[in-house]
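lol ok so funny story. i was supposed to be doing the assay writeup but got distracted and ended up predicting the structure for this chain instead. priorities right. anyway since i did it might as well share w the group, maybe its usefull for someone
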Amino acid sequence: MKRFLTRTFVLLFAMSFSLLSTAQMTPKDMIEVGVNGGLMFVAGDVSANTGLGGAGYGFGIHARKALDHIFSIRVDAELGQATGEQDNTINGVFKSYETKWVAGTVNGIIVVNNMRFDKPHRKVNLYLVLGAGANKYSTTTAPNDTPAAKVYSKSIEDRTGKLLAHANAGAGIAFRISPKFNIALEHNVKMAMGGTIDLMDGRENFNPGGIDVDRTPYRDLMNYTHVRLNFNLGDKDKKVEPLYWVNPLTPVINDIAELKARPVLDMADDDNDGVFNSFDKEDETPEGAPVNAAGVALDSDGDGVKDYMDKEPFSPPGFKINGEGVAMIPPEPKVTEDDVNKIVAAKLADFKTTFKGNKGTLTDWFLPMIHYNFNHYDIRKEEYGKLYQVATVMKNNPDIRIAVVGHTDKTAKDSYNNVLSYNRAMAAIQHLVNVHGIDRSRLVLNYGGEGATLIPTDGRSFMNRRVEFKVATVETEMGRPDGPNAGKGPKFSGNTGGY
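and the output, tada:
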């Protein structure tokens, strides 16, 4: 017996703890609305549902919101009519009555069978109803032919039709048809409060006008037996059914089910890449192949060839690659001394010297050009002497401005080459400003990309990778072209503009 009591106590404690935890995890639920209709009749001193108007009837609407899995609040509005007829009219004052009823009620509802935890939803709900509200009823009677009876009947009609309070009690059973709809059968009894509580059936407990009327010690009660059609409003993807249909432990059950469904952590590493099988998205990478945190083989240069198969894991951008991941860069053509002489001769053929007025200021001058290594924009030390010559000309002729024009060869995309030629021109300007003190406003940055090559080739060309200097006339500063940085070189600093 002691063991039984101990187990029972532990079980109740566990259930209480579970319910408390569940209350903190209560999900959002839908709101129920509905319509109802059925039989309305008075329980009093006169037999019901015969006489004037035939059988009684009633109908109404309601809205209901769950407070938790057991308690809820419902607001009802009802309209109906009840009729009845005296069993014996020998000593009576009327033959039949008709009572019209309008009421509004706020009810608390208790679901008595939602403490079972074996299923996620109830198919049937048993519930009790208790509430209070306000009503107005009016009663008319069909009196016999005596004057006293007519006076009595007129008194009944005059005294009804006032607003009264009432208490309500009832019980019902509901059947779940779908997550959005259920049907309920319910009976309610309403007890009115006030001095006219015994007038619903047209008879009261006193002897009017000396007429011998059967006395009754009971107040009259309005009864309503009806069917309810209930609809749940709300997005079923965001809200659950009203909580009185939901198992209180459903959140806990779902969490346990999710936990059971999780994969077992596999600590093995079958491909020896340092990533456990449970997290490895590519569990058959060759041994020794570099992988990322998800166990996927790396492709550092994004050329479609994994690093462990790529003979050039960091191929330069802008070139086609072969099957082994190697960039197919066209060979750089050799430039002979004869080629250089021809270029210089062509430049000298167009050389002109003009003067502006009598000041001796040059407006056109042949200045040296500088060249760059492949995919670079940093100044080669071999070019420092040429930049010194340009700076000397500018210092000796303070009225001239120099256009600094960058170029590339044809070994990458146009967008890439535009940024690279811009960077080369900017590097030359930075050198003239920072090393030789030339005012930045006297230097006009232009770029031509790969559009003005000296050597007609689509491959590498040292001669095409250059910056030219010429006396500016109508040239204007060109801004940096769109695109990511191109080429290798230092970051620009100082009063160079653009960076």
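The longest strand covers residues 124-143. The first helix runs from residue 2 to 24.
back to the writeup now i swear
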